[in-house]
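User: Sequence recovery, please. Input:
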Protein backbone atom coordinates (compact mmCIF):
# COMPACT_ATOMS: atom_id res chain seq x y z
CA UNK A 1 0.00 0.00 0.00
CA UNK A 2 1.35 3.40 -1.00
CA UNK A 3 0.47 6.48 1.01
CA UNK A 4 0.51 9.97 -0.47
CA UNK A 5 0.43 13.26 1.40
CA UNK A 6 -1.35 16.50 0.65
CA UNK A 7 -0.79 19.89 2.26
CA UNK A 8 -4.48 20.60 2.58
CA UNK A 9 -3.93 24.09 4.00
CA UNK A 10 -1.79 25.05 0.99
CA UNK A 11 -4.50 23.91 -1.40
CA UNK A 12 -7.20 25.64 0.64
CA UNK A 13 -5.23 28.89 0.84
CA UNK A 14 -5.10 29.06 -2.97
CA UNK A 15 -8.67 27.82 -3.57
CA UNK A 16 -10.79 30.59 -5.10
CA UNK A 17 -14.04 29.60 -3.30
CA UNK A 18 -12.12 29.87 -0.02
CA UNK A 19 -11.25 33.46 -0.92
CA UNK A 20 -14.95 34.14 -1.49
CA UNK A 21 -15.63 32.72 1.98
CA UNK A 22 -12.98 34.98 3.49
CA UNK A 23 -14.52 38.02 1.78
CA UNK A 24 -17.99 37.07 3.03
CA UNK A 25 -16.76 36.74 6.60
CA UNK A 26 -14.77 39.99 6.35
CA UNK A 27 -17.93 41.76 5.12
CA UNK A 28 -19.89 40.51 8.12
CA UNK A 29 -17.12 41.66 10.46
CA UNK A 30 -17.11 45.09 8.81
CA UNK A 31 -20.90 45.42 9.14
CA UNK A 32 -20.67 44.54 12.84
CA UNK A 33 -17.84 47.03 13.33
CA UNK A 34 -19.88 49.78 11.66
CA UNK A 35 -22.89 49.00 13.85
CA UNK A 36 -20.78 49.17 17.01
CA UNK A 37 -19.10 52.37 15.82
CA UNK A 38 -22.52 54.00 15.33
CA UNK A 39 -23.60 52.97 18.83
CA UNK A 40 -20.32 54.25 20.27
CA UNK A 41 -20.69 57.64 18.56
CA UNK A 42 -24.23 58.08 19.85
CA UNK A 43 -23.09 57.17 23.37
CA UNK A 44 -20.24 59.68 23.12
CA UNK A 45 -22.71 62.35 22.01
CA UNK A 46 -24.88 61.67 25.06
CA UNK A 47 -21.87 61.87 27.38
CA UNK A 48 -20.66 65.09 25.76
CA UNK A 49 -24.10 66.73 26.00
CA UNK A 50 -24.35 65.82 29.68
CA UNK A 51 -20.95 67.41 30.35
CA UNK A 52 -21.36 70.58 28.34
CA UNK A 53 -25.01 71.47 28.88
CA UNK A 54 -27.16 72.02 31.89
CA UNK A 55 -30.05 69.67 31.23
CA UNK A 56 -33.39 69.41 32.93
CA UNK A 57 -34.28 66.20 34.78
CA UNK A 58 -36.51 64.90 31.99
CA UNK A 59 -33.73 65.25 29.40
CA UNK A 60 -31.22 63.69 31.79
CA UNK A 61 -33.52 60.72 32.33
CA UNK A 62 -34.09 60.34 28.60
CA UNK A 63 -30.33 60.42 28.01
CA UNK A 64 -29.70 57.84 30.73
CA UNK A 65 -32.43 55.59 29.32
CA UNK A 66 -31.07 55.93 25.78
CA UNK A 67 -27.53 55.26 27.00
CA UNK A 68 -28.65 52.01 28.71
CA UNK A 69 -30.58 51.03 25.56
CA UNK A 70 -27.43 51.56 23.50
CA UNK A 71 -25.35 49.52 25.96
CA UNK A 72 -27.86 46.67 25.78
CA UNK A 73 -28.00 46.91 21.98
CA UNK A 74 -24.19 46.70 21.79
CA UNK A 75 -24.03 43.69 24.12
CA UNK A 76 -26.80 41.91 22.23
CA UNK A 77 -25.21 42.71 18.85
CA UNK A 78 -21.86 41.35 20.02
CA UNK A 79 -23.44 38.16 21.33
CA UNK A 80 -25.37 37.62 18.10
CA UNK A 81 -22.30 38.43 16.02
CA UNK A 82 -20.11 35.92 17.86
CA UNK A 83 -22.69 33.17 17.41
CA UNK A 84 -23.32 34.04 13.78
CA UNK A 85 -19.67 34.44 12.78
CA UNK A 86 -18.59 31.13 14.34
CA UNK A 87 -21.43 29.32 12.57
CA UNK A 88 -20.63 31.07 9.26
CA UNK A 89 -16.91 30.27 9.53
CA UNK A 90 -17.65 26.60 10.25
CA UNK A 91 -20.15 26.43 7.40
CA UNK A 92 -17.71 27.97 4.93
CA UNK A 93 -14.79 25.76 6.00
CA UNK A 94 -16.94 22.63 5.70
CA UNK A 95 -18.16 23.70 2.25
CA UNK A 96 -14.61 24.38 1.01
CA UNK A 97 -13.29 21.19 2.60
CA UNK A 98 -15.95 19.13 0.81
CA UNK A 99 -15.13 20.73 -2.55
CA UNK A 100 -11.42 20.08 -2.17
CA UNK A 101 -12.02 16.53 -0.97
CA UNK A 102 -14.07 15.87 -4.11
CA UNK A 103 -11.10 17.00 -6.22
CA UNK A 104 -8.66 14.90 -4.17
CA UNK A 105 -10.90 11.84 -4.26
CA UNK A 106 -11.24 12.11 -8.03
CA UNK A 107 -7.49 12.47 -8.48
CA UNK A 108 -6.72 9.62 -6.06
CA UNK A 109 -9.21 7.34 -7.81
CA UNK A 110 -7.83 8.23 -11.23
CA UNK A 111 -4.27 7.48 -10.07
CA UNK A 112 -5.32 4.36 -8.07
CA UNK A 113 -3.87 5.69 -4.82
CA UNK A 114 -4.41 3.58 -1.74
CA UNK A 115 -4.31 6.38 0.81
CA UNK A 116 -3.95 10.19 0.96
CA UNK A 117 -3.30 11.90 4.30
CA UNK A 118 -2.96 15.50 5.33
CA UNK A 119 0.68 16.60 5.46
CA UNK A 120 0.45 18.11 8.92
CA UNK A 121 -0.46 14.65 10.28
CA UNK A 122 2.86 13.21 9.07
CA UNK A 123 6.27 13.48 10.73
CA UNK A 124 8.25 12.69 7.59
CA UNK A 125 7.45 12.04 3.95
CA UNK A 126 9.64 11.35 0.99
CA UNK A 127 8.91 14.18 -1.50
CA UNK A 128 7.99 11.65 -4.20
CA UNK A 129 4.79 10.94 -2.23
CA UNK A 130 3.82 14.62 -2.00
CA UNK A 131 0.82 15.44 -4.25
CA UNK A 132 0.04 19.02 -3.19
CA UNK A 133 1.34 20.56 -6.43
CA UNK A 134 -0.62 18.08 -8.53
CA UNK A 135 -3.83 18.93 -6.70
CA UNK A 136 -3.12 22.65 -7.07
CA UNK A 137 -2.72 22.06 -10.82
CA UNK A 138 -6.17 20.41 -10.85
CA UNK A 139 -7.56 23.44 -9.01
CA UNK A 140 -5.99 25.67 -11.66
CA UNK A 141 -7.39 23.65 -14.57
CA UNK A 142 -10.86 23.92 -13.06
CA UNK A 143 -10.48 27.71 -12.84
CA UNK A 144 -10.62 27.64 -9.05
CA UNK A 145 -7.11 28.90 -8.30
CA UNK A 146 -6.42 32.26 -6.70
CA UNK A 147 -3.01 32.78 -5.20
CA UNK A 148 -3.14 33.77 -1.56
CA UNK A 149 -1.06 36.74 -0.49
CA UNK A 150 -0.40 37.45 3.17
CA UNK A 151 -2.73 40.10 4.57
CA UNK A 152 -4.97 40.30 1.51
CA UNK A 153 -8.13 40.09 3.62
CA UNK A 154 -7.01 42.12 6.60
CA UNK A 155 -9.27 45.06 7.41
CA UNK A 156 -8.03 48.34 6.02
CA UNK A 157 -6.56 50.72 8.57
CA UNK A 158 -8.74 53.71 9.29
CA UNK A 159 -7.22 57.07 10.08
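Assistant: Recovered sequence (159 residues):
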Amino acid sequence: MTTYVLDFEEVLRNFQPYHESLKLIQTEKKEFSELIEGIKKEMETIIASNKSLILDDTTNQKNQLRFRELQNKAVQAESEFRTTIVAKQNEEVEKNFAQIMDLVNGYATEKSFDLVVNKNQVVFVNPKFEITNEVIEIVKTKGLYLEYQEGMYEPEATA
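Strands lie at 3-6, 115-118.
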